[in-house]
Amino acid sequence: MTAGAAGAPEVVVVGGGAAGLSLAHRLVETGAARVTVVEPPDGPVRPAERTWCYWDEGHDGLGAAVTAAWPLLRVHGRDGTALTVDPAPATYRMVRSSAFERLVHARVEQAPGGRVLRATADTVRDVPGGAEVRCTAPGGRALTLRARYVFDSRPLPALPAARTQLLQHFRGWFVRTDRERFDPGVADLMDFRVPQPRHGLAFGYVLPLAADRALVEYTEFSRAPLTTEAYEAALGHYARDVLRLGGFEVESAEQGVIPMTDGRFARRTGRSVFRIGTAGGATRPATGYTFAAVQRHSRAVAAALRDGRDAVPPPHGRRALAMDAVLLRALDTGRVDGPDFFTGLFRRTPAHRLLRFLDGATSLREEWGIGLRTPVGPMLRTALEVPFLPRRTHPLPGTGVSHR
Q: DSSP characters for 101-170?
């Protein structure tokens, strides 16, 4: 922490997932605030182990929590054609939630005024001079926390009304093969050699952890999640018939749902209460990627508080959200063929520029150049249509949300 931490405002971060821990990390790193993290105690409310992936140039201070990293990315078209790209100076990185939690907890608790509180947050509200969080500690004891600001990362009870809403839903196996089957230097980001659903798109996803170990996932962009049995069947087909892994053992599994929506998320729910993470609109609407955006947004929030500003910036710019709304609608209507669209982007755009585009960090000129490499007619038609579409509510799936 910086020398100014003693006079920094008190902040309560509600939720110990990717968004809450990332913000707490940046706040104590910069000395922008004295931080209390409130996260659920062990039990049914506490999320299971999760995997978060993102790209970074290695300067984010999270190296101790990184499980694996890949210098090369590969995309497989439906016809089996493989395209390998080098996103240098960035690498694709995997963080497991348990390692990330240990890292951030240690840094928060070592910081002046920092602490991690295991309790269930019941209500969050404005009070004179700040905000209040009422909690229930293990054993049923009631606690009340007051702070200058509260940042709430808890999932929303319902998503905001949207013109288009898809879900990115997936199930993954951590597998160990009986022979060396994987290249640990290459991550298969999108493998379209799987049967495509009638609506949306599907792809495989392979993150090698060793020559004989990998996370193998089946992912869909569509309107509704599958049953566990359907995911298992799709994964079995992908592992055995597409990847041809031969003999393997499934050591563990994970499953998740990520909302892909152009709904307008309220980032501020009171004078001193803010939403962060997926609840605050950090998930990129057209790709479902969240972890990279959370890192960028956490740094921006910490900088704002350090400079004495309470106008917290949005996680994504208006231009990026407008482009995502168009792509989301084009995918949902079937005007754009998803596998061909994403394969074409990787084939025609330098890898590092494309990753910055997916992260919302490109310039208008760069975005114009990328746009000209997409199906111009269908995208233009959709862009003209989107502003006139009504926003309506969509059902929220009951499964837990995970983050890319």
A: HHHHHHHHHHSTT-EEEE-EEEEEEEETTEEEEEEE-TTS-EEEEEESEEEE-PPPSSPPPBS-EEEEEE
CA distances (Å), origin 95, targets 49, 101, 268, 278, 332: 11, 10, 28, 18, 30
Task: Give me the sign of the Cα torsion angle 306, 310, 315, 320.
Answer: negative
Query: Helix %, strand %, coil % for the chain, to 5?
Result: 30, 30, 40
CB neighbour burial string for 211-242, b if at least 16 within 10 angstroms, e if fewer: ebbbbbbbbbbbbebbeeeebbebbeebbeeb
Helix (H, G, I), strand (E, B) or coil at 337: coil
Whether the predicted model's global pTM rises above the 0.85 cut: yes
Short-list 354, 221, 337, 201, CA closest to 285: 221
Question: Is CATH 1.10.287.80 what the domain over 3-69+89-160+264-306 is classified as, yes or no?
Answer: no
- The token pair at 147 is 């702070």
Compute the distance between CA of residue 343 and CA of residue 285 in angstroms, rounded to an integer: 19
Walking along the chain (404 residues) 10 residues at a time, the average pLDDT comes out as 54 95 96 94 78 88 93 96 94 94 96 94 95 93 95 93 95 97 97 92 97 98 95 98 97 94 94 95 90 93 91 88 94 93 91 82 83 87 95 69 49
- Crossing angle between the packed helical segments 376-385 and 318-333, to the nearest 10 degrees: 110
* 28 contacts 131 by C-beta, under 8 angstroms: no
Cβ neighbours for 354, distance < 8 A, ≥ 6 positions apart: 87, 345, 346, 370
Peptide bond preceding 285: is omega within 30 degrees of 0, i.e. cis? no
Radius of gyration of the chain (CA): 21
Other C-beta atoms closer than 10 Å to the C-beta of 138 total: 12
